[in-house]
């Protein structure tokens, strides 16, 4: 791709960008939200047309006016939000719109056989049945179906947009093995991710975009993470995580759960002090989100006691939790944290209105939202902008502003920085620490081990619906995984 430029309504999204990808290479494309990564990839995939520039595949100039044309030339893209039909089978999804036929009829046998062969190429023929409905698959399995679909087009170039955003560490490792397999087969993999470690683990080269312009294309083996961060955000972020609280700065226990249970949860004993950030770690399915929802009253505890500031409280619904001063930033901000077609203003005031019914005069509401937008460093065209048009990082800031409006005493963050660029991530981390310094008790769920280790004043690890153990500030990633997996110390050391 040479000299690629693209504008939307007169606003440049890409300006004279060059990018090349080689057979058998993983080439990472990085930059903050809004840097132009997705726009560049959509142009390559035929979903958008450039205003200027040329695309060459194997040396020949190509023009794609539709994604189908790109697929026919061997270019496939896997978006962060999968394009799969949940009520169709794996085979039907892979061959949707191009089913093999025997006369006027779909040749189901041939389609099933071809699907099994594609899954076998990825080593997943025993894990995923061709006749399974997509809705019954895990996120990692759906990702594999997307890769198999790309292979069915005889892909030469595979674009992967934030492929590990919703995966556990173990699922991500399995995906990396598949990416390396594709690399050995000679595919060029263009890999978009905000996670520095996986980029350095996988990629041979890294292209950095900022504000729609090419900053540099780098050799991953000779590039340091701090150099990459500086190129992406235009400044040195210094320490990746803000300083932890000293023990003397912590207050009394603000949230306590005693012998909490119900559903998959068993005998939960948990305490979070005012001013403290407690990291909640564990493998996918360990019960972390279930614990958050039990505290918040969405799926309440059926036994045990919850205390706020030393007083027992029965929370049977999210409304009761909000009134008690508890806020939950859900794992899926788009499905559960925001109304995407509503404005920044209305989303910011959602939880507060559930408490009060109304929020004073229009001027009062405007002043409040403006103040909250400044506190979270929200980047939006106006308060009336629909949140669906914001970047992932700014959407998360709106969710955070929504809970700041309620002045919650306890805040539960479920995967607070998933799919967010390093600049926005650092801003959210700093704001979390500010809230803790102001007296909030914070429970942070994260599958990102560096985030757990870097942000937590204590780490509580869950396994199989119970608390497996607790680690102090500065715990190692290996120590967290030891508790999460139930391994013996010697196995982790090995």
What do these coordinates show?
This protein has 494 residues and is of the alpha/beta class. The chain folds into 2 domains: 2-233, 3-Layer(aba) Sandwich (Rossmann fold), CATH 3.40.50; 247-493, P-loop containing nucleotide triphosphate hydrolases (Rossmann fold), CATH 3.40.50. The protein has 19 helices and 22 strands. The strands form 5 sheets. The protein has a 6-stranded mixed sheet, sandwiched between helices. Strand 13 (253-262) and strand 14 form a beta hairpin. Helix 4 packs across helix 5. The longest helix is centred in the middle third of the chain and has 16 residues, at 169-184. The protein is globular. 44% of the residues are buried. The model is unreliable at 488-494 (pLDDT under 50).
Short précis:
It is built from 19 helices and 22 strands.
Number of domains: 2
CATH topology of the largest domain: Rossmann fold
> What is the CATH architecture annotation of the largest domain?
3-Layer(aba) Sandwich
Q: How many helix segments? A: 19
Share of residues in strands: 15-25%
Q: List the strand order in the largest sheet.
A: 6-9-10-3-11-12
Rg over CA atoms? 24 Å
Shape: globular
What is the tally of beta strands?
22
The CATH class assignment of the largest domain is Alpha Beta
**Fourth-level CATH superfamily of the largest domain:** P-loop containing nucleotide triphosphate hydrolases
Helix content: 25-40%
How many angstroms does the end-to-end distance come to?
45 Å
Low-confidence stretches: 488-494
Report the structural category: alpha/beta
Largest sheet entry: 6 strands, mixed
Q: Mean pLDDT across all residues, rounded?
A: 89
């Amino acid at each position: 791709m040479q000299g690629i430029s693209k504008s939307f309504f007169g606003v440049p999204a890409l300006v004279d960008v060059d990018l090349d990808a080689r057979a058998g290479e993983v080439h990472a494309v990085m930059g903050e939200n809004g840097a132009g990564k997705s726009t560049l990839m959509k142009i390559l995939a035929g979903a958008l047309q450039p205003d200027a520039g040329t695309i060459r595949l194997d040396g020949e100039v190509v023009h794609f006016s539709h994604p189908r044309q790109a697929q026919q030339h061997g270019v496939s893209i896997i978006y962060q939000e999968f394009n799969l039909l949940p009520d169709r089978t794996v085979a039907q999804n892979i061959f949707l719109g191009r089913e093999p036929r025997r006369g006027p009829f779909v040749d189901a046998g041939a389609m099933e056989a071809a699907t099994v062969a594609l899954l076998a190429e990825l080593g997943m023929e025993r894990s995923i049945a061709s006749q399974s409905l997509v809705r019954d698959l895990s996120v990692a399995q759906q990702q594999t179906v997307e890769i198999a679909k790309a292979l069915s087009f005889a892909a030469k170039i595979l674009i992967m947009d934030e492929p590990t955003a919703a995966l556990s560490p173990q699922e991500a490792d399995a995906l990396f093995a598949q990416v390396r397999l594709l690399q050995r087969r000679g595919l060029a993999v263009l890999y978009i991710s905000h996670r520095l470690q996986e980029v350095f683990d996988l990629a041979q080269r890294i292209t950095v975009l900022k504000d729609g312009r090419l900053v540099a294309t780098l050799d991953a083996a000779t590039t340091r993470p701090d150099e990459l961060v500086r190129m992406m955000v235009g400044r040195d972020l210094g320490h990746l995580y803000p300083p932890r609280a000293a023990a003397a700065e912590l207050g009394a226990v603000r949230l306590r759960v005693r012998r909490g249970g119900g559903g998959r949860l068993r005998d939960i004993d948990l305490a979070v002090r005012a001013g403290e950030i407690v990291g909640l770690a564990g493998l996918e399915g360990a019960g972390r989100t279930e614990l958050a929802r039990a505290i918040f009253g969405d799926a309440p505890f059926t036994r045990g006691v919850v205390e706020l500031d030393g007083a027992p409280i029965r929370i049977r619904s999210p409304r009761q939790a909000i009134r008690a001063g508890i806020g939950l930033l859900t794992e899926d901000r788009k499905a559960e944290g925001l109304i995407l077609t509503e404005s920044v203003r209305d989303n910011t005031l959602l939880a507060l209105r559930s408490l009060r019914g109304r929020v004073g005069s229009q001027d009062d509401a405007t002043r409040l939202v403006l103040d909250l937008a400044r506190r979270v460093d929200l980047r939006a065209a106006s308060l009336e902008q629909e949140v669906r048009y914001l970047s992932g990082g700014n959407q998360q800031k709106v969710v955070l502003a929504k809970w700041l409006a309620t002045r919650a005493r306890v805040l539960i963050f479920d995967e607070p920085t998933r799919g967010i660029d390093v600049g926005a991530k650092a801003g959210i981390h700093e704001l979390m620490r500010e809230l803790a310094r102001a007296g909030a008790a914070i429970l942070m769920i994260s599958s990102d081990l560096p985030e757990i280790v870097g942000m937590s004043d204590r780490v509580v690890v869950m396994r199989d619906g119970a608390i497996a153990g607790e680690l102090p500030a500065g715990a190692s990633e290996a120590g967290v995984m030891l508790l999460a997996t139930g391994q013996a110390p010697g196995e982790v050391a090995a």
